[in-house]
Amino acid sequence: MGARTLEAALRIRLLASLAPLLLAVGLALVALMGRALDALERSAARARADAALRMFDDERAEGDAPEVALREVAAAADADRIRILVRSADPPLERTGRRPMLPSLASLPDGACASADDPDGTSWLGCARRSRSTTAVVALGITAARATLRATVVAMAAVILLALVGALLAARVAVRRPLADVTALAAWSRGVGATEAPPPPPPGASAETKQLSGAFADVVTRLFDALDRERASSAHVAHELRTPLTSLRVELEALAVRGEDAARRMLADVERLSDVIDAILVLSAPRDAAGARTTVNVADVARACAPPGVRVEAPDEALVEGDARLLDLAVRNLVDNARKHADGARLVRVAREGAGVRVAVVDEGPGLSDAARKKMFDRFWRGAAGADGSGLGLALVRAVDERHGGRAEARAPSGGPPRGLEVSIVLPRLVGWSDDDAPPGR
Fold first, then answer.
1. Is the pLDDT assigned to residue 243 strictly greater than 80?
2. How far apart are CA 203 and CA 201, in angstroms?
């Protein structure tokens, strides 16, 4: 799984911060509403009980008998659809309405309140009040109020959810503009190494991104200046070595003709040193350095570079646009790599590869692991300690191929023995192909 973007991380952090806060606020509001509703219900039940006691006293004051007064109070409660129990100690009488008082509420002490459910599942809140020798217990139905509270909880949850969605959308809008500068800077940094003279980084709108942009620009400028100095130094050293090497080669070739074995050995060392200098010159040049581009028949290059006795599979013409000297140098290094590490090539092949052409050198050596094949084109990499060569030959091959827009690859030989290695360059733009008069393989 890939790393999250900074925008996604900020949105997640905002959600993690807001969700508990909104949930706590919602729960607090629901709790406050529940307590307020309960207080209102208790207050209403007590007030109704007080009203029943006053009505009882008023009826007695008008001359009604206690039984008649209690009946009037109960009738009024029935009209209001509430439960009531009125109990008189002098004379000892007790009266309820058409709906009897629930047993758990009938014995409430003065001022106490409690809730209970009847057999039908309806919830009631009862409160008791006492005035002299008379006690009234009134129970109000609270089912509707509880349903209202539950609906409020559901509505509150929906509001919290909508608030979270709104917060996320607001965060997306709020952080996208500042993060756009960071995104642009990241995109610029990914493309820095693709060119020899990268454009300046985006300036940024905030003070922080401006500072970051300036720091990146300073670091990249220093790196490219150091790279230019290193390339110039390498190229200068290589060019300075060419002249004495050329003189040494001429003198040693003259001595080798006379049969001097030491001269032949020294001549081989000079050739190797010359190859190293060629590699340094190619590797020190910029990737997009302009060379002498012509139409090159890489089939002829392959035949010219193949050692005597090595089979060549190539058409009559495989034409590409490129630098003839560099392509010749790359193929020779492929052949030389097979000679150093696999006792020579067994096959040099030129074949179509999509819209391009692949030039491959196949050997029957011990081969390499997948990890080694990925590293073998790195500079100074060697397959084993003490191996022959400078470690620059295949790096030069890759540099030449990249300069022509292609790639260098190493893989197990196709259609051959399990041993060995196929090392190749792929040139992507084939401009001509003809195999009508292909010469027989050598």
1. no
2. 6
267-282 in b/e form (b: 16+ CB < 10 A) is beebeeebbbbbbbbb
Q: What are phi and psi of 432, to 5 degrees?
A: -165, 140
pLDDT at 288: 56
Structure token digits, residue 350: 């030129």
pLDDT digits (tens, 9 = 90+) for 165-195: 887 777 777 777 767 777 777 777 777 766 6
Q: What angle do CA 259, 261, 262 make, to 5 degrees?
A: 130
| pLDDT digit string, tens, across residues 346-371 | 889 999 988 899 999 998 877 787 78
Strand bridging mode 311-313 / 345-353: parallel
Give one word for 408, left, alpha or beta, with left for phi > 0 and alpha for psi -120 to 50.
Answer: beta
Q: What is the pTM of this model?
A: 0.46
Contact 330, 358 (CB under 8 A): no
Q: At what angle do helices 143-190 and 207-257 cross, to 10 degrees?
A: 40
Average pLDDT value over all residues in the chain = 80
Residue at token pair 């922080």: 208
